[in-house]
Amino acid sequence: MEFIYQFVWIVPFLPFLASILTGLNLFFFPKSTKSLRHIWAIFSICLLSIALIFSLNILWQQINNNTIYRYLWSWIFDKQIDFKIGFLIDPLTSIMLVLITSVGVLVMIYSDSYMSHDQGYVRFFAYLSLFTASMLGLVLSPNLIQIYIFWELVGMCSYLLIGFWFTRPSAANACQKAFITNRIGDFGLLLGILGFYWITGSFEFEILFQRFNELLINHEINFYFVNSCALLLFLGPIAKSAQFPLHVWLPDAMEGPTPISALIHAATMVAAGIFLIARLFPLSQALPYIMNIISWIGAITALLGATIALAQKDLKKGLAYSTMSQLGYMMLALGIGSYQAGSFHSITHAYSKALLFLGSGSVIHSMESIVGYSPNKCQNMAFMGGLRKYMPITGTTFLIGTFSLCGIPPFACFWSKDEIITDSWLYFSSLGWISWITAGLTAFYMFRIYSLTLEGYLRANSNKVFFISPISIWGDLKYNNLKLEFISKKNFILNKSDNFFNMDENENQKENLYFFSDIKKGLFPKESDKKMLFSLLVLTLFTSFIGFLGVPFPQGQLGSDLLSQWSYPMFTNSIAVGNWSEFGLNAINSLSIVFSGIFIAFILYGPVSFSPQNLEKKFEFFLKKNFNPFFSFIYNWSFFRGYIDGYYEIVFVEGTQLLAQFILFFDEWIIDGIVNGFGTITSLGGEGTKYLEGGRISSYLFGLIFCMILLLLFLVLFGAMF
């Protein structure tokens, strides 16, 4: 068994090898590599599949043995400094290895079809393998230095993949935004690492935790300094996992290819922050103020992400804000000490969100042949609708992913999210209310996305030019379809355009109309091919059954589910699950708000209206009369991303530009002005003096005598005054 653990380095090495070989061949032999591109894709998939098999073996050994293994080698050795590299194997590591490799393999299989017509196909697989290898190296790291190295590699890969289509300005801006935002968190992480090294004298997790607890018990450390270092340390996960206020990069990251969106949101980029907080849980658990900060940041992020997702028209951005909200749930769970619930939700959410993103990619892939390749068209839910009858497998799998993310039993996220909501109520009622309300909002916006995408009828159909206005979040689908109704091409003579007219923020209350006149005639969406459907079906199995790992057994005692037994060597849940009757009552509490959100979404956006016509009119009149300002505020809040991006634009972007202009002015007119002023004065003085040099001695004598007389007069007058 130990023999297997000694060769765990093979797991990150295999995808790293695939990335290096693919990249080198693409660089030195571009033509031959591109001609054999499918072979290189199969090569990458095979190596990662071997890593998956190895990870499953390690997980099985952990289940049977429940032992922590560490293997370390000296990297930099000195009298005062001893840096080591190696790997750490425990239940958290083994579960994350299986999660990353399984999602990575499925994303690669999916990408082989999704990216088949892209010119950067080989480059994409090289980046994808490097991304997976970086995340695998991160979860195997036994110390903070090694984690920081792979942390930066994960950030670099995300920069490359978000900006994969770098010729598109929006993609280039998005990858820069993600990179700069994460640099803020990474700088804080580096300062926190150095601070704790100064306190404990070690980067190794085991030694660091042990020394920190000893110093804390003996009151030998400064309380404020320790909390400051811990806050800086957790600034990295806040940025990487898109927590408020460093969440602004996540929606723009959707500019990358859809398979990358699935990998970032499921098993790599955003999971890195949650993993680091889980890894450092013994450290934060000893600092109650930091735990409170983490829990409240998570709660605010969960609610903020859910409210912003309410009125998104872009399919991928709606799912992106959903990820932000669910990451807030995980952060909330870790902040209240519910280690098992937070870790469990990261697993269930990973498979569910990977399923939803790959399902959205299948939908987008089918819409591209109808509305074009612009993200403003093929990702816009206003063009979709009724796709389930054209794409039954994609529609069914997307519905299962929606059920799971909403927290409907028996799907995966129900078991983890319900546990977080229950623990939040027990910890602090305000956090319980926030998590409960967020669950209802999640159900509403997810079924809104599902209804607008897959139910109703196709709104981008064939031979007509049409206007679209933003879809109201409170109007029913019948009313929305009237706004999206096709207008005959004979009635309007419009020039073809590929771009949206920009929405005027000063007139956002008005109906803003956009037009698209290049819709392909007579085309309908088609189901994706077998490779893409294979990934969707496998992820559907995970989404349906992975949640049963956390189902409490009838005895209802702490640690009475499989997941807590596996994670026992690290930590068990700090709040007991309770018996089945208590579990049922807690489930009814969370399901009540979930089904309320689904019901409202189905009434407003569903394909069938249950209200009689006169009742529907009265209901619309009631909304307009009493709640129109409220709903307008919610819509504008969601549409403009909570106005946070606007404030950041004013404060940071425009503020930085003003500061740069002021520095430029100061440099040109003050610093350079003083130097140039002395030069100008000297030049003018010399220019004026040269006219006095006529070469006549009589003139020189006259000037000398005249100046002496003036000097004497000045001295006489000055002496008379004093």
Output the radius of gyration.
32 Å
Helical content stands at 55-70%
Strand proportion: under 5%
Termini separation comes to 104 Å
Supply database-style keywords.
single chain, 722 residues, mainly alpha, 3-stranded antiparallel beta sheet, two-stranded antiparallel sheet, 29 helices, 5 strands, 4% strand, globular, Proton_antipo_N
Task: Provide a concise account of the structure shown.
The protein is mainly α. It is 69% helix and 4% strand. Helix 5 (91-114) packs antiparallel against helix 6 (121-140), helix 5 runs parallel beside helix 18 and helix 8 packs antiparallel against helix 10.
Strand-helix topology:
Layout lengths: L1 H5 L3 H19 L1 H6 L1 H29 L3 E9 L4 E8 L1 H24 L6 H20 L3 H19 L6 H32 L4 H13 L5 H11 L1 H6 L8 H4 L5 H9 L2 H11 L1 H5 L2 H21 L6 H21 L3 H33 L3 H4 L13 H15 L5 H16 L1 H26 L10 E4 L8 H7 L2 E2 L26 E3 L13 H16 L16 H5 L13 H26 L7 H27 L4 H46 L7 H25 L1
Antiparallel strand pairs: 1-2, 3-4, 3-5
Helix pairs in contact: 2-4, 2-6, 4-5, 4-6, 5-6, 5-13, 5-18, 5-24, 6-7, 7-8, 8-9, 8-10, 13-18, 14-17, 14-18, 16-17, 16-22, 17-18, 17-21, 17-22, 18-20, 18-21, 18-24, 20-22, 20-24, 21-22, 22-26
Word description of this protein:
Among the domains are: 1-142; 644-720. Strands 4-3-5 form a three-stranded antiparallel sheet, with no helix packed on it. A hairpin with a 4-residue loop joins strand 1 (69-77) and strand 2. The chain is 69% helix and 4% strand. With 722 residues, it is mainly α. The longest helix has 46 residues, at 644-689. Mean pLDDT is 82; it is low at 462-519, 555-560, 568-578 and 609-623. The chain has helices at 2-6, 10-28, 30-35, 37-65, 91-114, 121-140, 144-162, 169-200, 205-217, 223-233, 235-240, 249-252, 258-266, 269-279, 281-285, 288-308, 315-335, 339-371, 375-378, 392-406, 412-427, 429-454, 477-483, 530-545, 562-566, 580-605, 613-639, 644-689, 697-721, and strands at 69-77, 82-89, 465-468, 486-487, 514-516. Helix 5 (91-114) runs antiparallel to helix 13 (258-266).
